[in-house]
Specification:
seven-stranded mixed β-sheet; globular; disordered N terminus
Length: 316
């Protein structure tokens, strides 16, 4: 789902002129994708020369037969419950607010969702709800109620974006704080390059989402390609191809909101100046960071730790 095209980076110049303190122009180095692995996920690790060491945390591949799809459904539910454990550990819980949805691989017009009024740290494989068309709880998952606002927001996004397999939203502290400005995040750290040309902003707050129109407005703010959106006076919205992706990217976005607030506060010192990353360098970095497989791998250390700490509880 990366919105950055590789050929855009290839066409960028390798150097650009800059002015040194003495007034002399100097060449600034920019990296290129030329010569790098075509698969972004394979740019981030190295094994041995013999090729016998590989990255074991890549996403598994499932077949299309029913046995494989049932295994994929179980895998989705396990990782979804794991992401909620991660969110709970990060302190993202806020009453009834917050929801993640993931399309079901068998019933394509259904999606899995967390039950309302269950703390993120108490979400398990067995209490996930399968939501059917029209937003009603189906008989195939836990027989528990879901968040109404979550239904209106997520159903609109899934309808508008067939490429979106998972969507996530909750009321994290720093995301809400930055959202009141109705502005995109600056690209001023390596991790923030994920958001280069990958942010929408919904510049309105229409109240608690209890109708289809507000969900549609949020989906429109995401547009046809963005993976993230800042909802003014509300919080953050993230979409992606896997639940691992949205869980990790939401955490990254929350961290970047915290950094942005810290940087803005530091600008009260007139001797400090904010430096953003050159768009060429941001695009080069985004071409790897935004790849969904790479993001999935980034989430695996957190997932493996959660399994080690609480697997006996949430995998049931």
């Amino acid at each position: 789902m990366s919105p950055i095209a590789a050929d855009t980076i290839h066409s960028a110049p390798a150097t650009k002129p800059s002015v040194a303190p003495g007034g002399k122009e100097e060449a600034t180095f920019h990296q290129s994708l030329d010569g790098l692995d075509d698969k972004p996920v394979d740019r981030i690790w190295r094994g041995n020369k013999a090729g016998t060491i590989g990255l074991s945390q890549k996403m598994p591949v499932f077949g299309e037969d029913m046995d494989s799809l049932l295994k994929k459904r179980q895998w989705i539910k396990e990782h979804m419950a794991g992401v909620f454990q991660f969110w709970g550990k990060r302190g993202y819980g806020e009453g009834l607010s917050g929801h993640i949805t993931v399309r079901d691989p068998i019933l394509k017009d259904h999606y899995w969702m967390n039950p309302v009024c269950v703390h993120f740290s108490l979400v398990t494989v067995s209490n996930l709800v399968l939501v059917g068309p029209g937003g009603w709880v189906s008989e195939h998952g836990a027989q528990l109620p879901i968040n109404t606002a979550g239904y209106w927001i997520h159903s609109a996004i899934h309808d508008a974006r067939p490429d979106v397999m998972a969507a996530a939203h909750c009321h994290s502290i720093h995301g809400r704080a930055w959202s009141v400005f109705g502005k995109k995040l600056d690209i001023f750290t390596q991790d923030s390059c994920f958001f280069h040309d990958n942010q929408g902003v919904y510049n309105n707050f229409g109240g608690l989402v209890l109708a289809a129109e507000e969900g549609d407005n949020i989906a429109k703010a995401l547009g046809p390609k963005f993976n993230t959106c800042i909802l003014q006076n509300h919080g953050l919205m993230v979409v992606g191809k896997t639940v691992d992706e949205v869980g990790y990217v939401f955490s990254n976005m929350e961290n970047q909101c915290r950094l942005q607030l810290m940087v803005e506060a530091s600008l009260a010192n007139p001797e400090l100046k904010k430096t953003v990353i050159d768009p060429v360098d941001a695009a080069f970095t985004a071409a790897t960071l935004q790849n969904w497989e790479n993001i999935y791998v980034n989430m695996q250390p957190e997932y493996e730790l959660i399994v080690h700490e609480r697997g006996d509880f949430f995998l049931k």
